[in-house]
Amino acid sequence: MAKPKSTKTPKPDELSKIDYRPPEKQWMEVPVEFKPGTYCYGARPKYLEEVGFPNPREWQPYEDDWKLPDNWKDIVLEGIDDRLKKYRSFRLFMDICVRCGACADKCHFYIGSGDPKNMPVLRAELMRSVYRKYFTASGKLLGKKAGARELTMDVFKEWWYYFYQCTECRRCSVFCPYGIDTAEITIMAREIINLLGCNTDWIAGPVANCYHKGNHLGLEPHTIQSNIEMMCDDIEEITGIRIEPTFNRKGAEILFVTPSGDLFGIPGVYTCMGYLMLFHELGLDYTWSTYASEGGNFGFFTSNEMAKRLHYKIYAEAKRLGVKWILGGECGHMWRLIHQYLDTWWGPADFLEVPKSPITGTVFEHAKSTKMVHVVEFTADLIRHGKIKLDPSRNDHLRVTFHDSCNTSRGMGIFEEPRYVLKHVVNHFYEMPENTIREKTFCCGSGSGLNASENMELRMRGGFPRANAVKYVNEKYGVNMLANICAIDRAALTTLMQYWVPEVEVCGVHELVGNALVMTGEKERTMDLRLEDLPGKEEEEEDV
Amino acid sequence: MGALFSFGVVIALVIIALVGVKGAHLQALFGVVIPYAAVVTFFIGLIYRVVKWGKSPVPFHIPTTCGQQKSLPWIKHNKLESPATGKEVFLRMVLEVLLFRSLFRNLKMQRSGDRVVYGSAKWLWLAGIVFHYSFLIVLIRHLRLFTNPVPSFVSLIESVDGFLQIGVPNLMMTGVVLLAAVTYLFLRRIYIPQVRYISLPADYFPLFLIMAIAATGILMRYFIRVDIVKVKELTTGLARLSPTVPDGIGSIFYIHIFLVSTLFAYFPFSKLVHLGGIFLSPTRNLANNSRMVRHVNPWNYDVKVHTYEEYEEEFRDKMISVGIPVEKNPPAEENKTEEASEESEGKE
Ligand code: HEM
Ligand code: SF4
Ligand code: SF4
Q1: Which of A275, B155, B217, B277 has minimal CB crowding within 10 Å?
Q2: Which CATH class is domain B2-285?
Q3: How far is the CA of A169 from the centre of ligand 3 (A)?
Q4: What is the whole-number distance in angstroms between the Cα of residue B300 and the centre of ligand 3?
Q5: What is the pLDDT of residues A435-453, one digit of tens each?
Q6: Is the ipTM of this complex over 0.95?
Q7: A171 touches ligand 3 (CB under 6 Å)
Q8: Domain boundaries, chain A
Q9: CA distance A486 to A467
Q10: How far apart are CA A157 and CA A219, in angstroms?
Q11: Whole-prediction pTM value?
């Protein structure tokens, strides 16, 4: 295979013409084709070395020779065996699929590409066929007739291609009669692929950064501080209030952890400004940490072990600083991990206290073991108790819809809290069609470490169902703002909207909170958090 | 094509039974030995599979949450789709197992001009429910052959099943319905291109097998009659573990029982084990309470981490230079030179 020429993503009308007819040939006979624009570059060796991943070397997926060790097959088969023994989900999901096809058209990548190997069931069969060949009697005896196939280099490459076309969004698992979660199979497959060092650069880089510097972006302590101070400058310009947040402060009541995407880049920083303003207004005794400066975890997109290594910092830092509990910012996979993994990896967090809002006195019983509360839960509770003053009319220039992030929807179940907050901070809120929200929500198309730039066509395809639903509310209600509670969404959906629905911008829920929040001693607001004029506000001033 | 292959296998099974009984007079083999072997295989196989699944632990708490979590008291918690307690999980499982809840959610993606729409698609669910329940009822009705006296619930089910009172002998609806439902499941496999694309011989085989079982059953009951008294003699013999093989039972009976035996023996080694699997599915049978109750991973092992001390070691000067508190202040002397170099860096 040749190095792909720099690829141009096709135009939207072209991309949205999708052929759903499967090929004539049986799927095992159709070789994998690495289409430029649909996959990421291979990981540079320095990133793998930094965290001690196997087989660091220069390689690219479009090259014929992937430079694998001679015994690569044994490594893969042992890797499968090991995981079958460790994960009931894996063993069970290898065995019980009846190929009813209920999951087939539930995957955004299938809807956006028409490639049958993006049907969750077939994605899983890529692995299952090898499982049958080496781990079941019928597969060993009957071979292809039993749906079994040999593990070859082509099969391995096919895995790589398609398991990096799954965003681990779990939408398929909602519809499967047995709850087969293809995300779980993808997670296993990526672990196994990683045993041979075949990671993507876009994932391995942030992992290495996060391990050493505390966050994916590799922001060093002084940069974190100065970024936040720059946000405080903007807040001062908007509100006339100077905020002085603290860093790595011992004895604070609360440690605040958010994805580093909130600290850098647009529109993440606006969400961060929202947090800063809210916490200041409340007089919250909290601290940032430059060490635990990442809520997200790209390690989860490589292996369970790496994910655990990266998520060590949160409890460790909470313990070192002696805080009582931890508040977490808006992020998708971060919250799946905090909700479903963190306590198992690093708990029990018995050095912390059951979280209690110092403002309302609410005890967050549902977080009594992890001691971590989602900032949207925290804010919803404030609003419910009337503890903050809000002027939703400051968001009147926005017609807002809400994108449920995959991880917080299907791996946590936080649906009402963000809606409750939104309905109090904006006057114009519209839902997207029912089958595209809540537990049935569609992925941004760039989750699980796929938000690189060299795979833009794939991302635009994967995000097509989401964008299509946004387009519908844009046309029907004039929606111009897509709110969400995920840092990857804020970045990925922005690109997605520019491509499919350029009229719509993207924001975090707390940006809208920041806009609406009436702060003690603030000046008359004429700008929103984006430093854009608030329509009507200047005129009013003149009238007075 | 997979379907043809599987069809061929089922036909071969029929021929084997026919030749075995008609040609080789192996009534005892087909009427006694094979059924016993099949039942033993079924139970041992099923237990083996379930134990094997059970031996792999559930390291993480991974329920798929399909509804609002239990959080703040004033937010309505969805107890069935996002169960927080054992009891709620039990109810979720009841819905899954008895009503195929998840399959009921099914939607069909369609393009309508520029838009993508997701219409309701309940046929698979309906056919699935009809198929499984008629299968179950047929199975229960068969208990009549293995019991003496026949338990009252069997007779009751039978009388309900035959309430239409059509024909002699009385038509049992479930037999026909079962055949119809299986036929539907087969046809959708053939006609929906995506489903055909994913189908393996192992997907067609049970369908043909069950079709053949139902068809031979119906044939035997309504068309090619067999001596039911003698059949019952054989089947109760099997149940009492003192088998006898009465003469004069038609070959169709042996074909039927051979196909059933095949299904039983095949069951544990095929996708049909989903019967057992669904109960163990960790995306369904765990409570969404993982922030309330710690889930323990039995193989949780220590991993290499990057500690705060290592972090501070690397960034101490930078932290000090912007006033971020550190654990270990470097000696004043060093401090100065470091700061100086910091400044010169800053000038670049
Ligand atoms: C307990 C919950 C169960 C659920 C949710 C379930 C669901 C399903 C579904 C969705 C199919 C796929 C139909 C298709 O092929 O398109 C199926 C097939 C089948 N199931 Fe079940 N099932 C369950 C239990 C059972 C039980 C107890 C049996 C025992 C006889 C069974 C026997 C079969 C058979 C024989 C098939 C046909 C194979 C086929 O369709 O390819 N199932 N089931
Ligand atoms: S819905 Fe579940 S059982 Fe049906 S094909 Fe998909 S993974 Fe297999
Ligand atoms: S987890 Fe999401 S991306 Fe992966 S196969 Fe399922 S629906 Fe597709």
Answers
A1: B155
A2: mainly alpha
A3: 5
A4: 27
A5: 999 999 999 999 999 999 9
A6: no
A7: yes
A8: 12-199, 206-516
A9: 16
A10: 34
A11: 0.93
